[in-house]
Model the fold of this input.
Amino acid sequence: MDCLFCKIATGAITVTRLYEDDLCLAFPDIHPQSPTHILIIPKQHITSLAHATPEDSALLGHLLATTATIAAQQNLAGGYRTVINTGDDGGQTVHHLHLHLLGGRAMHWPPG
Ligand code: 5GP
Ligand code: ZN
Done:
């Protein structure tokens, strides 16, 4: 499958692996939007949140819990933002489910 994040998950494309377990991988975003900007992906290809099924519920929970653990390790005591862009209107550009972990500056609301 010609998927950028699958290639990163398998190691075909090298990234700094900030966290890894059997189910997921975290690495820095190549175009950071904040001082800390980390992507958390499932190793299994899921195109987007809209493509997740009830059978993926445990994996989705694991991704969120892992994101909180990584945030704690990144000294984001002041808070942080987690984002999942889904589909064209959601601004998704890489079609492999991923969470953005953004921190290190105050965030604004509403988002653009
Ligand atoms: P999306 O817009 O799909 O929610 O987010 C995709 C993210 O992947 C973007 O923030 C973009 O900067 C990041 N990205 C795209 N290509 C690469 C890459 O080759 N390496 C890394 N580390 N991040 C990437
Ligand atoms: Zn993929």
About this structure: Residues 3, 5-6, 45, 96 surround zinc ion (ligand 2) (CB under 6 Å). Residues 57-73 form the longest helix (17 residues). The first strand starts at residue 19 and ends at 20. Residues 91 and 112 are 10 Å apart (CA to CA).
